[in-house]
Amino acid sequence: MSIAFTPERWEKLRTFSRAWWAGEARRPMLYVVAPRAPDRPAARLTHRHFLPQHGLDVDPADVVDAMDHHLAGQEYLVDGHPYIWLNYGAGVLAAFTGCHLQYDDNTVWFFPRREVPARDLHLGFETGNRWFRQLCDVAEAASARWRGNVMLGMTDIGGASDVVSSHLTPERMLTDLYDAPEEIERLMWEAHAFWWHLWREVDRRLRPCNPGYSSWTPIYSEEPYYMLQSDFCYMIGPDMFDRFVRPELVASCRQLPNAFYHLDGVGELPHLDSLLAIPELKGIQWVQGAGRGGPMEWLDVYRRILDGGKRLQITGGSLSESLAVIDKLAAEKRPVGRIYLSAWLGRDDRAARAELDAFLKRYGGE
């Protein structure tokens, strides 16, 4: 088997994951991957981070084979496991409800085909959308190819507010929050309904073989999990967040046994207390953003999240700094068994591996 992972490793991951989600783990969940030489022939295609970069006429089987070659070139350490997600761009629901999908070598964007005020906008799911059909075909081909040995992450559906913003443009949506608030509320719930329609359509194609649930972050869960978000809320205050964004988030949290939230940048910190007050929200991923320092500079945010009873994903910075942050939080008697950390090591990075081994020994884990 070209992908270096066994059924025994999957069972070990499931066992630890249950303890981690139950709040019973002694150590953080550590998704760690390192490169290795793949022991299979090269694929016809080169793996692309954004799947639209392959174009619309590509054979889904070739896309999956390129993914397989990519995964075969990885070694999975600690809680690392074969994982790949169906990446059609952040907030791809916008494309399936009427926006234009545009991509280049670096990213994917979504633009309204026609700019209209909120009162004239009505979302509708385009089942015949060619990108949607390709997403479904790739999901089915991947599920059939790997038969449960690869964790296929859900596509990045986007936050409901971000989808509405893609249709209206951010500038118009900000204006309509004042000029047409009831229309924005209507559109948020339309987006919510189609969000769940897309989630179920993709999950139905993954479910026969997928070994669990994941999203655009590789957190593993045996029960439905997703990383919810609202990048749009960076531009609004707590009152508007609580009126326009939070109700829809709460509704999604109530349908997801393991819901996380993507707290993206200092502009979203004013909403942290409101998020912590959602009982059904299990965790928060804090992303400080470029130029905002490493994890050690955000200890107060980590403390607020952990003290609020949530799980925490640490991002940014080196592995050494993140492990030092965890040690510091542990010394403060905070529940570091609720922390999630992902790391990608360099080839033959013996120093990083030794540091990781020492960390695991301190927390009684393997």
Please give a quick description of this structure.
This protein has helices at 7-21, 60-72, 93-96, 130-146, 160-168, 170-179, 181-206, 238-253, 272-276, 299-307, 319-331, 350-362, and strands spanning 29-35, 74-78, 83-85, 100-103, 108-111, 151-153, 225-229, 258-264, 281-287, 311-314, 339-344.
Q: Classify the secondary structure makeup into a structural class.
A: alpha/beta
Q: Total helix count?
A: 12
What is the number of beta strands?
A: 11
Low-confidence stretches: none
> Structurally, how many domains make up the residues?
2
Distance between the termini: 24 Å
CA-based shape: globular
Largest sheet: 7 strands, mixed
Share of helical residues: 40-55%
Multimer state: single chain
Beta-strand portion reads 15-25%
Q: How are strands sequenced across the largest beta sheet?
A: 2-1-11-10-9-8-7
Q: Determine the mean pLDDT.
A: 96
Q: What is the C-alpha radius of gyration, as a whole number of Å? A: 21 Å
**Element string (H = helix, E = strand):** HEHEEHEEHEHHHEHEHEHEHEH
Key terms for this structure?
about 375 residues, TIM Barrel, 2 domains, seven-stranded mixed β-sheet, two-stranded parallel sheet
Written description of the protein model:
This protein is of the alpha/beta class and 366 residues long. The chain has two domains: 13-36 and 218-366, no CATH class; 37-72 and 82-214, Alpha-Beta Barrel (TIM Barrel). Helix content is 41%, strand content 15%. The protein is built from twelve helices and eleven strands. The protein has helices spanning 7-21, 60-72, 93-96, 130-146, 160-168, 170-179, 181-206, 238-253, 272-276, 299-307, 319-331, 350-362; strands at residues 29-35, 74-78, 83-85, 100-103, 108-111, 151-153, 225-229, 258-264, 281-287, 311-314, 339-344. The strands form three sheets. The protein has a seven-stranded mixed β-sheet with strand order 2-1-11-10-9-8-7. Helix 2 packs across helix 4. The longest helix has 26 residues, at 181-206. The model has no long low-confidence stretch (mean pLDDT 96).
